[in-house]
Amino acid sequence: MNKRIKIFAPATVANLSCGFDVLGCCLDTVGDEMVISLHEDPGVKITKIEGADLPLETHKNVAGVAVEALLKKYDQPPGVDIEIYKKIKAGSGIGSSAASSAGAVWAVNHLLGNPFSPQDLVAFAMEGEKLASGNAHADNVAPALLGGFTLVRSYTPLDVIKLYTPEDLMMTVIHPQIEVKTSDSRSVIKTNITLKDGIRQWGNVGGLVAGLYTEDYGLIGRSLEDVIIEPLRSILIPEFNAVKEAAMSKGALGCGISGSGPSIFALSKGTETANHVATAIREVYDTTGLAFDIHVSKINDQGVKIIDS
Ligand code: ADP
């Protein structure tokens, strides 16, 4: 029964401007590492966490909660030990908790011989998201598990669709190291929207999906617009407008808030443009005196990856 695997658990960008709570995509160069092992003594244990100050108690760690949700549906559940090597900072807006939840359930499923479907794994990982944010959203765990771009067509019943990823799409992400309280980023959002804004937003979601499938980079760019959340949340992110202007002036297709922020993402066609965008964003943030990280990544079409087995 002793089985062990080391995996890469990717960071993800949720919402993608127009797709609040339904769209997301998976990154390739940013992510955590995890070692998962199965053994005969029952029970789920977080045995090690490096790189972040996160709870070791199983029921307080998203990885533990997600794995327990999976094992509840498995006859004769084995014992599971989880080691987490954190590279994605918690609260960054690039799916830190989602990487742990998705990585853990993916690895356990793999070691058990894949009894569960990707859709099942999304549902288990969502239990981890519920612990992290009080809300079982799938827009980070779905792309971490399925790879590429994903759409949550419906939450009840859960219907998650993997979309097509154009080859040349590149992501630039800046993570300003400031704390945006989840309560603040939630409280600025309104629970009602106007029909006019709804029409504009779902037109853009359709446009983005069509743009991905037809590899129409112009259409992707035109669709990366958010008239509902961005105007309210961007106020909490220093220099958001200046970053967006800098990214667009260097040829980014679009730029917006990653998840609930404070990270900002820009999508570009090709590595060269994505690197120019990174330089321009860096220049904006250098003037603020704030600490920040910048990542340039291609879209990871695979999701969680095995590093060592
Ligand atoms: P992000 O803004 O990057 O999406 P999250 O929404 O992932 O951030 O939230 C991180 C929250 O989840 C923190 O409060 C953190 O303490 C909690 N948490 C619990 N377990 C983990 C874990 N294994 N990895 C990351 N965050 C975790």
Automatic annotation (TrEMBL):
Alphabetic keyword roster: Amino-acid biosynthesis, ATP-binding, Cytoplasm, Kinase, Nucleotide-binding, Threonine biosynthesis, Transferase
Enzyme category, top tier: transferase
Catalytic activity: L-homoserine + ATP = O-phospho-L-homoserine + ADP + H(+)
Documented EC number(s): 2.7.1.39
An MF annotation (GO) of this entry: homoserine kinase activity
Domain spans labelled GHMP kinase C-terminal: 209-286
GO biological process, one term: threonine biosynthetic process
Main location: cytoplasm
GO annotation, cellular component aspect: cytoplasm
Pathway entry: Amino-acid biosynthesis; L-threonine biosynthesis; L-threonine from L-aspartate: step 4/5
InterPro entries: GHMP_kinase_C_dom, GHMP_kinase_C_sf, GHMP_kinase_N_dom, Homoserine_kinase, Ribosomal_Su5_D2-typ_SF, Ribsml_uS5_D2-typ_fold_subgr
Domain GHMP kinase N-terminal intervals: 64-148
One Pfam assignment: GHMP_kinases_C
Compartments in which it is found: Cytoplasm
Protein family (similarity comment): Belongs to the GHMP kinase family. Homoserine kinase subfamily.
Function: Catalyzes the ATP-dependent phosphorylation of L-homoserine to L-homoserine phosphate.
Protein's recorded name: Homoserine kinase
Source organism of the structure: Aquimarina spongiae
Gene behind the chain: thrB
